[in-house]
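Bumping my old thread because nobody answered last time. Still need a sequence for this structure:
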């Protein structure tokens, strides 16, 4: 039943990726020389221009995605920041971290709306919010949850700031200092010391928040050593969030077990969304983590998508060590996949599905279905008032919907449109032949002629042609996790 635990066929470092047939093909090379491309975190100049042009033309599903953005209260140009000198997250502290994540999402949403609509008031609002925080915030404190605050809000702050980095009033130097002095040190320390706990004490999403912050900081601040640190940890890190620890088992059906599915659905969705975020930011700088280790992330994301939609998935019992170094220690075993509620959703699927099916031309039917079910995706404020509803920046229907590549097997240029000017190295990649979908049956993402039906993003429908999304639901449902 299993290929390997932690050792998929055709594992790679740089330069090649194993395929299902065992044939090595070139992958996009890391842009090891020259400056980074800007904008170049979750959105490139090409991405932003595409959104604006599609919305102006009234094209679906972009218009539905943009409507979700403009309806969100955080995207209004009247938003005013409430910066704090110290942000606390965790029990036993005077928690005020909600102020930070609400303001960051307001900055991001206003900046994104500016790029689509061209309305300067939204850019001005985003700049004012970010400047207010970079001029006041000096510390993140609290329980162990302070590491979550650093990781989540660090990568989100960087992405909001990246969208307005060329604005005349934006305090770029102050933003860099905030990331390097406040957010990044906690995230980097977590990847190094894991809060002085044994390395497997924390589930994958803890590492992934830290990785996202480290990578975003390195790109935003043009610090290549920091970027290299995040990329190396993704591939070979000791903690639960590195790709082979988060996705330890590849099954013969092409799906790969997401270890946190043995915990609960909410945290598994968080982890998939964060790993997708890391992969997308790296891709926009010419670093292919999406395809790393025979597209291992594709197989893990497909697994979580199938399970979240109500499908049955296998799970091998996973035992991990817990406790503090030199203190209490023990073990905990996740013996079976947790109960999943098909009604639970997060704005994570459009980015991942579009990469694999449109950029790379691969089959990913469960991702396609999950993206269709979640569309049009919203963002912070659309998924409940608690912090879990703000873990992803969202708006994937608007931001990541893309036309299918005319020839996915052709050499792929660096996705960031400004790469040529910045010196980023171009991709020279052929399409991997891995598959993470059932061998039988037709995948709607495999043909552009059925795109409207397959994605159904404009209407956000949950059942489409041929009963594709009429999924069997389990009688049991699980509660939502952060």
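Sorry it took so long. Here it is:
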């Amino acid at each position: 039943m299993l290929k390997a635990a932690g050792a998929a066929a055709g594992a790679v470092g740089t330069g090649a990726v194993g395929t299902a047939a065992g044939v090595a093909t070139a992958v996009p090379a890391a842009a090891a020389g020259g400056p980074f491309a800007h904008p170049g975190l979750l959105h490139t100049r090409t991405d932003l221009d595409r959104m604006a042009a599609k919305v102006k033309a009234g094209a679906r599903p972009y218009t539905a995605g943009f409507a979700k953005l403009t309806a969100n209260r955080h995207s209004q140009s009247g938003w005013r920041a409430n910066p704090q000198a110290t942000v606390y997250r965790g029990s036993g502290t005077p928690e005020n971290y909600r102020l930070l994540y609400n303001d960051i999402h307001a900055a991001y949403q206003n900046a994104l709306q500016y790029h689509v609509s061209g309305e300067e008031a939204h850019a001005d609002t985003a700049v004012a919010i970010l400047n207010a925080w970079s001029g006041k915030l000096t510390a993140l404190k609290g329980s162990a949850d302070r590491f979550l605050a650093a990781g989540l809000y660090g990568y989100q702050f960087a992405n909001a700031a990246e969208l307005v980095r060329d604005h005349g009033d934006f305090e770029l130097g102050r933003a860099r200092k905030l990331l390097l002095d406040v957010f990044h040190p906690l995230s980097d320390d977590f990847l190094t010391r894991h809060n002085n706990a044994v390395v497997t004490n924390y589930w994958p999403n803890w590492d992934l928040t830290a990785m996202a912050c480290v990578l975003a900081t390195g790109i935003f601040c043009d610090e290549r050593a920091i970027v290299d640190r995040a990329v190396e940890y993704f591939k070979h890190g000791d903690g639960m969030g590195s790709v082979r620890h988060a996705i330890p088992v590849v099954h013969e059906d092409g799906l790969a077990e997401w270890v946190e599915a043995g915990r609960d659905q909410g945290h598994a969705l968080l982890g998939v969304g964060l790993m997708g975020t890391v992969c997308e930011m790296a891709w926009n700088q010419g670093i292919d983590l999406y395809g790393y280790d025979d597209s291992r992330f594709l197989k893990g994301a497909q697994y979580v998508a199938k399970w979240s939609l109500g499908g049955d998935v296998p799970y091998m019992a996973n035992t991990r060590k817990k406790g503090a170094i030199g203190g209490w220690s023990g073990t905990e075993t996740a013996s079976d996949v947790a109960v999943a509620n098909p009604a639970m959703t997060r704005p994570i699927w459009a980015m991942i599905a579009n990469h694999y099916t449109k950029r790379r031309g691969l089959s990913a039917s469960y991702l396609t279905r999950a993206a269709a079910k979640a569309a049009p995706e919203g963002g912070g404020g659309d998924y409940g008032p608690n912090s879990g509803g703000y873990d992803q920046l969202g708006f994937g229907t608007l931001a990541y919907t893309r036309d299918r590549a005319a020839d996915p097997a052709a050499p792929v240029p660096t996705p960031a449109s400004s790469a040529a000017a910045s010196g980023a190295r171009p991709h020279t990649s052929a399409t991997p032949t891995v598959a993470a979908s059932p061998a039988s049956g037709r995948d709607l993402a495999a043909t552009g002629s059925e795109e409207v039906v397959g994605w159904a993003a404009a209407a956000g429908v949950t059942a489409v042609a041929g009963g594709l999304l009429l999924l069997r639901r389990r009688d049991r449902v699980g509660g939502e996790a952060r």
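The radius of gyration is 21 Å. Let me know if any region looks off to you.
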